[in-house]
Amino acid sequence: MTAAGHPTIRSSRFTERIVQRIRRDRILLVLAVPGILIILLFRYVPLLGNVIAFQDFQPFLGISESSWVGFDNFRILADPLFLNALTNTLIITLIQVVLVFPAPIIVALLLNSMLAERWKRLVQSILYMPHFLSWVMVVAITQQLLGGTGIINNALRGANLATVNIIGNEDWFFALITSQVIWKDTGWATILFLAALSRIDVGLYEAASVDGASRWRQLWHITLPGLRSIIILLLILRLGEALNVGFEQILLQQPAVGIRASEVLDTYVYNNGIIGGNWGAAAAVGLLKGIVGVVLVLGANKVAHMFGEPGLYDSRSSR
Q1: Which is nearest to 302 in space by CA: 291, 311, 293?
Q2: In sequence order, what DSSP letters do the residues of 193-230 get, joined into one string?
Q3: Is the confidence at residue 159, as pLDDT, over 60?
Q4: How far apart (Å, rounded) are the C-alpha atoms in residues 173 and 262?
Q5: What is the torsional sign of CA 195, 200, 201, 207?
Q6: Are 176 and 166 in contact (CB under 8 A)?
Q7: How many CB atoms lie within 10 A of CB 123?
Q8: Which of 270, 275, 300 has its CA nearest to residue 285?
Q9: What residue ranges in the chain does DSSP mark as E strands?
Q10: Distance between CA atoms of 291 and 224, rounded to whole angstroms?
Q11: What is the pTM for the complete model shown?
Q12: Residue 71 CB coordination number (10 Å)
């Protein structure tokens, strides 16, 4: 083995590079400290509370005094109410991946094709605004528009036409919450895709146009490949939250539509843990959600590496 290949020398060089990077980026590291502390305090420290999934937890006794029950809390997985919540969650997740996730990509492509920069900025500003409304406001607006005494039904009554029952209708619930998410968050989600589009070399489009490529061919061979990495990254992150389908949004509309159609895992945890006092079982459901999210992220990231994409991180750079 040569001196350059000796493990001690390699380790020394690696340590030296790390020290150099720390010195070079020390200001950025100092600025990142508050954010890191917040993440540790509010994201990682609470993970220790998952221990109550294996206890008959009583708030007045605390974690140290509550009795251990092993895996008894996980028997809730056979509860018909839990299975109903899981089914609704999976259906909503599938709908959001198929319909909600592509929406900002489509809007970003449409905005990018607009020639007048002034009109593009105006449309962007209008699309961004719903993101800053709370779900309380969004649900209230929906009720004012589509409720039994809402604007649309009042107009139908004025025209002697039959009214439509959307708010409180189980058959329309999934479509209703999906349309709310698209209206509220699509504009804001276009920011990342517009930023990625701005990084695509304009010369590629000019060369393709000279070669006679149509707009559709330019979209397929230049634009979409330029967006592929960010699309895969955001899709992986979305899969990590696949079982989080909008707690506040659904909880606010649950009284109108009923438990059977609107119960999801988040509201199930709230109704059984916070309201029902079954803390251990609720924690067990939350723990399983977290495990499923981690597995989905790691699995999707591995698939991305198989197709040559960096995903959340570039596996080649970690070697």
Answers
A1: 311
A2: HHHHHHTS-HHHHHHHHHTT--HHHHIIIIIHHHHHHH
A3: yes
A4: 8
A5: negative
A6: yes
A7: 16
A8: 270
A9: 55-56, 67-68
A10: 32
A11: 0.81
A12: 9
